[in-house]
């Protein structure tokens, strides 16, 4: 899976391309941790507009990042999930720790 | 006679995408919506990943058996492994229950299968391993049916 990191002002937008499942979770996790630390951004937006598939492995990755960075001054947001991914995020209660942001 | 498929795959991570795509392709016969296909793909991915991660822990080798057939307007799916099975199935099916805390698992697999499909049954197999049975009704689209009839 490809990941695009776009830092501007205090926000880092992370766009995930393709499918996030157990087979890709490990490398996604490592890439996210490295780049979130490096960016030192106050706001991280996960842009899911190009994410075609995600299962509960993705929930594990998101909750894991939230826990890992809970001691740091960074907040996480989610943007543009497809309807199936949106259902998984709702079911898992992710939006209570990573609210939705509308973005252009 | 209604259609069916049977697939046996080695329990390795890179077969997760293959397994869910195979079942999704098979379901196309019932003319599902994009969202219904997404539901089926996700539920299959959960069951198959569980075989790989939990059924055969520590990367031990084994097979995943996938069977699917069409029952009226529903797709029926069975996903089985010959691994370790589950001691307490009722507990395992609860939301957020996981035996793999250290690995960033969410414990939402069975909850997703149950929510996205119309039926979920989980049972240990005789001789070891787990079998997950799921069904989802896909109301056939009337427009497509009548188009078929007039063409034939
Ligand atoms: N095929 C399987 N073989 C053995 N144990 C399983 C299998 N599938 C699920 N389990 C058990 O059920 C638990 C819950 O599964 P699930 O809801 O998918 O959550 P997760 O996979 O995130 O742990 C697992 O942690 C595991 O203990
Ligand atoms: Mg699981």
Layout: helices, strands, pairs:
The complex is a heterodimer of chains A (104) and B (152).
Chain A: E1 2-8, E2 11-20, H1 22-39, E3 43-47, E4 51-54, H2 56-68, E5 75-79, H3 83-92
Parallel strand pairs in A: 2-3, 2-4, 3-5
Antiparallel strand pairs in A: 1-2
Chain B: E1 4-10, H1 15-27, H2 34-55, E2 63-71, E3 74-81, H3 89-92, H4 109-116, E4 119-124, E5 130-137, H5 142-151
Helix pairs in contact in B: 1-2, 2-4
The structure holds adenosine-5'-diphosphate and magnesium ion.
Adenosine-5'-diphosphate (ADP) binds next to helix 2 and helix 4 of chain B.
Secondary-structure-based class of chain A equals alpha/beta
Mean pLDDT rating of chain A: 96
Name the average pLDDT of chain B.
92
The CATH superfamily of chain B is identified as Histidine kinase-like ATPase, C-terminal domain
Give Rg of chain B in angstroms.
16 Å
Count of strand segments of chain A: 5
Neighbour order of strands in the largest sheet of chain B: 1-2-3-5-4
Identify the overall geometry of chain A: globular
The residue ranges of chain A in which pLDDT falls below 50 over 5 or more consecutive positions are: none
Instruction: Catalogue the ligands.
Output: adenosine-5'-diphosphate, magnesium ion
Radius of gyration of chain A from the CA trace? 12 Å
Number of helices of chain A: 3
According to DSSP, the number of beta strands of chain B is 5
Largest sheet of chain B: 5 strands, antiparallel
Number of domains of chain B: 1
Spatial gap, N to C terminus of chain A: 23 Å
Number of domains of chain A: 1
Name the biggest interface. A-B, 22 and 26 residues
CATH level 1 name of chain A: Alpha Beta
3D architecture notes:
The complex is a heterodimer of chains A (104) and B (152). With 104 residues, chain A is an alpha/beta fold. Chain A has one domain: 2-Layer Sandwich (Transcription Regulator spoIIAA). Chain A is 39% helix and 30% strand. In chain A, strands 1, 2, 3, 4 and 5 form a five-stranded mixed beta sheet that branches. The longest helix of chain A has 18 residues. Chain A is globular. The mean pLDDT of chain A is 96. Chain B is globular and about 45 Å long. Chain B has one domain: Heat Shock Protein 90 (2-Layer Sandwich). By secondary structure, chain B is an alpha+beta fold. The interface between A and B is medium-sized, with 22 and 26 residues. The structure holds adenosine-5'-diphosphate and magnesium ion (MG). Adenosine-5'-diphosphate binds next to helix 2 and helix 4 of chain B.
